[in-house]
Design a protein that fits this description.
397 residues; 5-stranded mixed sheet; 15 helices; Translation, Eukaryotic Peptide Chain Release Factor Subunit 1, Chain A; globular; alpha+beta
């Protein structure tokens, strides 16, 4: 079975930083299930044929073509490979590098020969589809669920005993000794974090019960915070009833993780994948709003002749190379090419009217701008549909 990985931001940056005299990129949408899955192998075979023709046109010798493509040809006979794909596939090949990557979103069918891998259609989507963490908060069986850009695959992590439920917590709870907990932090072991208890139950008035519940939530929040930090999450979406949501917010660490309300419901009212999909929708809406705000900022700066902006593609490429771009807005058209050759030493661009099949491997300049922006810590977002200009950049200076 050929090794294939889910494309993540770390791999994306590694691919973006790679440059060679010839980089070949193949992209295609995939059929994930059903009787039509055999079309995946057929589509990939057609891509290999298209790649062969492009490589021949730019003057590659047959042995060079074989070196690039022959390692991919056995895939055509691996039936199991084509039935375990996600929504898209991207293949990056050069003389010194080869990688096959799942995409959790569909992508246009394409063959590109460049001096860089063609990542332009992928970068905005990966910056948009961040990892998802959802806290399902209840008095019994609280849990964190995680998904890495695919709502169909998730992982559930539950707190250790006695934090697995409020009832279990109360069996070992001592109000006075528990005050030490917040200064100690959650060490991952029950003995280090949970004081002894002498048989006290949950009985008492509402104020006492709420005090007990808040102490349980304090200790649970320690576990949540530490778990998310270990996984490098900066935000979590909360599903909880109104009372638990309010109490949980009062015990959260100041300056800690960002907490976003997902729903005021009993977490068990929906399957975990439903909550993950709801987060995906919120993130999508947030990303669309970010695009609209960026365009509005560009238009305001353009109108007032203030601030640093660029809207000419060659100037955008130069700005990206100089690490100036904070936000880059591009049309969502992965096959609208702008060919040229960029000299990083002089920042000069030789624009080309014909594609790489005639001129040889050069730079698809929109792709180059996106790559350099990504590597220099900027954001690449789609230009809102129907907006003008075609390209725009908000710059740091």
């Amino acid at each position: 079975m050929t090794e294939i990985s889910l494309l993540n931001t770390d791999i994306l940056k590694e691919l973006a930083a790679f440059e060679a005299p010839l980089c070949l990129t193949l992209t295609m949408p995939c059929i994930k299930s059903g009787d039509q899955q055999q079309q995946n192998a057929i589509r990939f075979k057609n891509l290999l044929q298209d790649a062969t023709k492009k490589l021949e046109k730019i003057g590659c010798q047959q042995h060079q073509i074989d070196d690039l493509l022959s390692p991919l040809e056995p895939l055509l006979d691996e039936a199991d490979f084509w039935t375990h794909l996600q929504s898209g596939l991207i293949v990056c090949v050069s003389e010194d590098k080869q990688g096959l990557y799942h995409l959790p979103f569909s992508i246009d069918e394409n063959v590109i020969v460049d001096r860089h891998f063609y990542l332009r259609p992928v970068i905005p989507r990966l910056q948009q589809d961040s990892k998802v963490a959802v806290l399902l908060l209840s008095m019994n069986n609280p849990a964190l669920i995680f998904s890495d850009r695919s709502s169909e695959h998730y992982e559930t992590q539950v707190p250790p005993e006695p934090l697995s439920s409020f009832d279990d917590f109360m069996k070992t709870y001592d109000m006075e000794e528990s005050l030490q907990f917040r200064s100690q932090g959650y060490g991952g072991g029950v003995n280090a974090t949970t004081p002894g208890y002498h048989g006290q139950g949950v009985a008492g008035d509402d104020a006492t019960k709420n005090a007990h519940l808040k102490e349980y939530l304090k200790q649970l929040e320690n576990w949540v915070d530490d778990t998310l930090q270990q996984r490098h999450f900066k935000e979590v979406f909360l599903v909880a009833g109104p009372q638990l949501e309010g109490l949980y917010k009062t015990v959260m660490r100041s300056g800690g993780l960002q907490l976003h309300k997902l729903d005021q419901k009993n977490p068990s009212s929906e399957k975990p994948e439903i909550w993950i999909e709801n987060v995906r929708q919120q993130l999508k809406e947030r990303f669309e709003q970010e695009s609209e705000r960026a365009l509005a900022t560009y238009q305001r700066l353009k109108r007032k002749h203030e601030g640093s902006i660029e809207d000419n593609l060659p100037d955008i490429v130069r700005a990206a190379h100089s690490q100036r771009i904070e936000t880059l807005m591009l049309p969502d058209k992965s096959q609208d090419y702008y060919w040229g050759r960029f000299d990083p030493d002089t920042s000069k661009i030789q624009e080309q009217e014909q594609d790489e099949s005639v001129t040889g491997p050069g730079d698809e300049l929109v792709n180059l701008a996106a790559i350099k922006t990504l590597l220099n810590g900027g954001r690449v977002i789609p230009m809102p549909e129907g907006a003008s200009p075609d390209y725009a950049a908000l710059c740091r200076w």
